[in-house]
Amino acid sequence: MKKTRWILFALLAAVCVSLAAPPAASAQGCTLRDSRAPWSSSAFSGTCRSITRAAGGRGGTAFTLACAANEVLIGVRGKADSYLHSVTALCVPVDPRTGAWSGSVQARGSRGGSGGQTFDLRCNRNEAVAGLSGRAGIYVDNLRVRCRALGANTVATGSQRIVPGSAGGSGGTSFSGTAYYCGSNMPATRLTGRAGIWIDAISLGCSWMFPGTFALASPTDNTRLTTTTPIFTWGASSGATSATIDLTQVGSSSTGSSFSVPPATTSYRWPAGQWPFASGASILWRVRACNANACREVVRHLIAP
Asked: Taking 90 as the threshold, does the pLDDT of residue 267 lie above it?
């Protein structure tokens, strides 16, 4: 009898999961979603980004120094003596297909005080920051930067390389290890922590590189269509290696159709005989552009003819 109850419970749980599940996750496992996508209360789905353990204390004010959408973190600049006084995030644009640097180094904000001597710890060309190590107590006493090479789709590859030199003094307790390194072969894209007149704590934000931003052009939002073979147009997404276009009825995710298109495609005529919607139905038009690790999708509302 007990075994039967467990079987019934497992079947019920499976049914509940099936009913509650959003559209199937992509092989990429990470999607940056349009805010109007009804199946998501978050801009992200799947494992898109992470943050390492923070080294240091709990004083100061929290900060995040983020690279731009097409950039990775390639170093840390700042001032230090016995402690770290300030930090600046150094970022560089990359080709999302190859991982190669595609522009000049950019400073993306600073936090901390004004004391100490200048330091500059940065990765070699076509590398990204992948971890931090050093010494810390109630402040960050010493900092070392660890880098990895960037491969296709900006995946961090190979072993870590410690940038020569360090910033700061010899106090505090040593910190190092996987808790302070980006996981899943992600590159670092944000420098985070806490700061006042010194750097109280420091950590890394890590994330996949998404295909480039794009917009849906035509039909415009909330348009009532006049044909069941409409032409859809949208902008190109740089770095995408696959793409899909789909229409889904609002309130009935099982009603709809999806078609794969070449990643460079920016227009598509809906095929004759493939229109599944009743006249006046509220539908969502979605284009989804993906690379090997992540997807970007944009959604617009339309009305069936």
From this structure: yes
Residue 55 backbone dihedrals phi, psi, to 5 degrees: -105, 130
Per-residue pLDDT of 112-166, as tens digits, reads 999 999 999 999 999 999 999 999 999 999 999 999 999 988 899 999 999 999 9
85 secondary structure, DSSP code: E
Between the CA of residue 209 and those of 68, 97, 100, what are the distances in Å?
11, 9, 12
The answer regarding whether domain 49-207 maps to CATH 2.100.10.30 reads yes
pTM for this prediction: 0.75
Q: For the chain, where do the domains classified as CATH 2.60.40.10 start and end?
A: 25-45+211-303
Concatenate the DSSP letters of all residues of 235-302 into one string. ---TT-SEEEEEEEETTEEEEEEEEEE-TT--EEEPPTT-----TT-EEEEEEEEE-SS-EEEEEEEE
Q: What is the dihedral of CA 261, 267, 270, 272, to 10 degrees?
A: -100
Backbone Cα Rg of the chain: 24
- Residue pair 46/33 in contact (Cβ under 8 Å)? The answer is no
Distances in Å between the Cα of 284 and the Cα atoms of 29, 87, 104, 173, 225 are 22, 44, 40, 54, 12
Domain 25-45+211-303 has CATH 1.10.10.10: no
Give the separation between CA 226 and CA 213, rounded to whole angstroms: 29
